Inverse folding.
């Protein structure tokens, strides 16, 4: 897959597409493109999903996470799209409450100190656990270019 240029393409690559429900690495019931069924059930949904349904669910998930992020971190609207995408992607991976634990990273991001924010990300347990996805997001924070 080519380098994504938006959050939907990036999440599709990072989460993968599974049209039947499955347990993710943390034991959550999941379907589509990383949709957490435990936190956000899809009542009456039949499986397998179609690709179009998976994309529609992802679009709604990104919108919901983006609105929640903006309510908790109103300054993110001032970030360029790629750096805002880092926080959206991390929220998708960790949940917004998990992202909010990155106090130093968020403070440095808000201040525009992107190199230090990237170093903060690299120093986290998340970075060691997530692997290539984390490496790409760190680079994206540094450069402001989609990875």
């Amino acid at each position: 897959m080519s380098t994504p240029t938006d959050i939907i393409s990036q999440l599709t690559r990072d989460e993968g597409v599974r049209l039947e429900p499955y347990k993710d690495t943390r034991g959550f019931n999941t379907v589509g493109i990383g949709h957490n069924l435990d936190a956000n059930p899809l009542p009456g949904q039949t499986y397998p999903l179609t690709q179009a349904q998976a994309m529609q669910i992802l679009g709604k998930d990104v919108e919901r996470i983006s609105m929640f992020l903006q309510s908790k971190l109103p300054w993110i609207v001032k970030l360029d799209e790629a750096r805002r995408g880092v926080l959206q992607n991390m929220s998708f991976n960790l949940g917004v409450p998990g992202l909010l634990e990155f106090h130093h990273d968020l403070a440095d991001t808000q201040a525009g100190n992107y190199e230090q924010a990237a170093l903060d990300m690299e120093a986290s347990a998340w970075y060691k656990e997530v692997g290539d996805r984390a490496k790409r997001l760190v680079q994206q924070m540094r450069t402001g270019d989609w990875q």
